[in-house]
Amino acid sequence: MVGEKLDPRKEFGKAVTELAELNSDIVILSADSGGSSGFGEFAKEHPERYFEFGIMEQGVMGIASGLATTGKIPVFCAIAPFVTVRPYEMFRNDLGYMKQNAKIVGRNSGLTYSDLGATHHSLEDYAIMRMIPGVVVLAPQDPVEIRYAVKAMLEHDGPVYMRIGNAAQPVLFEEKPFIIGKGTVLKEGEDITIISTGSITAEVLKAAVLLEEQGCNPHIIGMPTVCPIDEEIIVEAANRTGKIVTVEEHYLQGGLGTMVAEVCAAKSPVPVKMLGVPKVYAASGPYDELMALYGLDAKGIADAVLKA
Amino acid sequence: MDRKVIKELELNAAKCRRNVVRMVEASGCGHLGGALSCIDILTALYFYKMNISAQNPKLEDRDRFILSAGHKCMAQYAVLAEKGYFDKSVLDTYGRLNTKIPGHPDMHKLEGIEANTGALGHGLSIGCGMALGFKLDKMSSKVYVVMGDGELAEGSNWEAAAAAAHHKLDNLVVFVDNNGLQISGHTSDIMNFEPIAERFSSFGWAVKDIDGNNMKEIIETLDLIPMQCGKPTLIVSHTIKSKGISFAENKAAYHYWKPSKEELNQAIYETETAIKELELI
């Protein structure tokens, strides 16, 4: 139900488990991470398809590749930096270069492990994963979209990186069919375009209400596929409003904002203001306070849009 | 053991050594030392042991071979060519733009290659995944991995070594090409992993030391696999770097070889002489 708050990891685990009932090629890999990724039920129901390896993310990435060569569809979910920056070469060579059908999911992503500090934050994952040729990068925006994204991810033949959060998230959509590579217009507007990805879209939608109260009518685009980016919807929006603001729980460099700017520079030059986290080892503390610190709460976003 | 079988395999290995020199001749350079130290093992696997088909490289229940030390790929190309996976004229494209046989193997370019190796410390994990997949499907396919000894310093190998034992992957067989030399000198001086067999044994592997350039010993060992039910197999293969080219044997300088004309001619002469001698026996 819209507005209800749900745990994204549980929704993710449930979605994979449901699809694994229908497809026996789906196998789950755990680096002491499966239980916290929503796979407790799966491990009980399908122990023969649930593989525990302990804390060895580099090894698991190669093992996922090997399993995929035998026709399995491995799903490996762990804390986001441990499946991205740590085993990056394994992701690039064993999954990307070898074009293997494995699904890697970074949970507790962005700043959501806020109090655990910079070792547990993932603020460069969009940037580095999009640099691997052939890798699809997904960041569903709410618990409902996570379920649809899981289906799209498992139906896609090739390596996928998906990012999900940690804290309970509000349901934004009653239904949200997912097409890899496509963004959607969440609200029509004329004054300025806001493009966001991942769970921060919830804050963007709140910011839209604040903006309307101040007489600004934003055009809102949700972009749950970070790579390949939906160029068409960006160009349409650039032509429509002449100005774009991007919002992401990621470094300002290399992520959604950079990709939108690349598209605009090539196809429809308009000013692009990027909102995100500056390239620092981020502070630690309560999640809401951290997001506010970096101007990524609804008020911060609305204020920045008005100044754009 | 049938002496004829061994002689035939030795002859094939000699032809493969000549193929390696042919690739170096084509490109002017290549990772010679490791290719020639492991080539007897590869010859035994492809010509004696593995269930594979050059005519049907994607045979569903085939065994898999992964060259974790991907820089030794001239050995694999040499064996695949000799086995009939592709025309030997392809060997003359080594080093050329868009060749099917690049400086590290690419499974999407050449039939018979099962993994894109080159960065060290990847092959064993990939092999574990394959072996796990075959176990899950109750398939009899085996996975053979050849690693370098210098490569053992990559920590990811030890993650995979633990995983293979934990998951009881007795369909996984690994050769460490223990030629004792790497690019900067003696492996034991650079980062000592001796005793290799004991280290793997302590991880839960079945282990054996052999002379990796002795065909009889290699195939007698292959006949024992799996050495222990429920355990992955590790064969420490004591080999000679650049084996078969007299002036290059046991010299780290020939890890990567950019031969002079005289050296090349000498290598061609020696590898062709070895073939002729074996044909006379």
Can you offer a commentary on this structure?
- The complex is a heterodimer of chains A (about 300) and B (about 280).
- Chain A has about 300 residues and is α/β, with parallel strands linked by helices.
- Chain A has two domains: about 5-170, 3-Layer(aba) Sandwich (Rossmann fold); about 185-305, 3-Layer(aba) Sandwich (Rossmann fold), CATH 3.40.50.
- Chain A is built from twelve helices and 14 strands.
- Chain A has helices at about 10-20, 40-45, 55-70, 80-85, 90-95, 125-130, 145-155, 200-215, 230-240, 255-265, 285-295, 300-305, and strands at about 5, 25-30, 50, 75-80, 105, 135-140, 160-165, 170, 185, 190-195, 220, 225, 245-250, 270-275.
- In chain A, the strands form three sheets. Chain A has a seven-stranded mixed beta sheet, sandwiched between helices.
- Chain B is of the alpha/beta class.
- Chain B has a single domain (about 5-280), classed as Thiamin diphosphate (ThDP)-binding fold, Pyr/PP domains (Rossmann fold, 3-Layer(aba) Sandwich).
- Chain B is built from nine helices and seven strands; from the N terminus they run ααβααβαβββααβαβα.
- Chain B has helices at about 5-25, 30-50, 75-85, 125-135, 155-165, 185-190, 195-200, 215-220, 260-280; strands at about 65, 145-150, 170-180, 180, 185, 205-210, 235-240.
- Chain B has a five-stranded parallel beta sheet with strand order 1-2-3-7-6, sandwiched between helices. A two-stranded antiparallel sheet of chain B has the order 4-5.
- In chain B, strand 2 (about 145-150), helix 5 (about 155-165) and strand 3 form a beta-alpha-beta unit.
- The model of chain B has no long low-confidence stretch (mean pLDDT about 95).
